[in-house]
Amino acid sequence: MVSPHTTAPARSAPAVLDEAACGALLEALKADGYTLLGPRRVGQVIDYAPLESFDDLPRGIGSTQEPGSYRLTQHSGPDQHARFAYATPASSFKRHFFVPKLTLLRAKRETAEGGVGFRVLEATQPRPRLALVGARSCDLHAISMQDHILGGASPGNPADADYVARRRGVFVVAVSCAHPASTCFCTSTGTGPRADDYFDISLSELTNDAGVVYIARSGSAEGAALLERLSPPKASADELEQEDRSLERAAASIERQLPLAGLAKVLDENLESPLWDAIADRCLSCTNCTLACPTCFCSSVEDSSSFDGASAERSRRWDSCFTADHSYVHGGSVRAGTRSRYRQWLTHKLGTWREQLGEAASVPRGTDEASGCVGCGRCITWCPAGIDITREAARLSEKTED
Hints:
The chain is of the alpha+beta class. The chain folds into two domains: 15-253, no CATH class; 263-396, no CATH class. The protein contains 13 helices and 15 strands. The chain has helices at 19-31, 94-97, 137-149, 161-167, 186-189, 221-230, 237-253, 263-269, 275-280, 288-292, 338-357, 378-381, 389-396; strands at residues 15-17, 35-42, 45-50, 61-66, 69-74, 101-112, 115-121, 130-135, 171-175, 201-208, 211-218, 299-305, 311-318, 328-329, 332-333. It has a seven-stranded mixed sheet with strand order 1-11-10-9-8-2-3, sandwiched between helices. It has a four-stranded antiparallel sheet with strand order 7-6-13-12, with no helix packed on it. A two-stranded antiparallel sheet has the order 4-5. Strand 12 (299-305) and strand 13 (311-318) form a beta hairpin.
């Protein structure tokens, strides 16, 4: 399940799609029975939401993201034609596969000849066949990591049946990120800005004064077959050079860096550092960082019943290591304060993640510095206190002054 359809991607020669061809691509996916999910303007943010057509994608809109701040902007010049000239949307695809609340079972009281009993009802929920449009590389790496954690792709991690059912048959149209935010640091985690893996079709957006075109590549047999149905022209050498320049500029513009080299050892040796107290003085334990994170997967199970006792329900919902109940055992919570909760989150995400979940559920793979972070920067953007994971990791590593 790591790759959307195949584990041996079928790469085709780069082709060029104009907006009409992209519209035809999405219509073909709809005709094949997919529900489209992609970036849209939702209130004052860009977020992944249902799409009806290519025209639902925002045009000429950008985003400015800073610690604790998100603002939409309007592009001028060539980027006024762009559909993807912004960084990662406000939330990830996580909630569509590992859903925020899942009903596990329902029970209803019934009266029969033998007396009063109950009947367990099947808790069915809709699971549309999704096509992810405009998926960024960091989010695709996050989905791949979740495939190993929840999807059973790693032998040591048992599969979650609901996750597997929702991930089955997903089609991915990725977009390389040419406009990273100031909070992004995917170059540190090896997850962007170019989309290199985990897609059926990838797009790179090229803008000029006349409009916009897209360099398209296939990453699976299904993606190659769909592109062949569109019969697009091959990309020219000039267009491929423009694509390379655009993504090189994007990578060079990323200033935040996560000091992963030796970080796990540093965190383990500094569990009693006074810096944890300094962070706790600002942290609100609001859980925003874990809810926005595309790789966090904490959950809890709760039971509820109707007032008259006629029915009951058991459900699983998202939880966070920042809540007091998450570490509750008989007698109280193991992590009673914000200091220990933030330390748990950071040391697990950047230190013990690979040890617990394996290399396949970590990035960048094949390195001793692999962690559970894909560098999307959402935890920085959506922290009301503006706490910056890269800065705090650097302070603990003594790579920057306070």
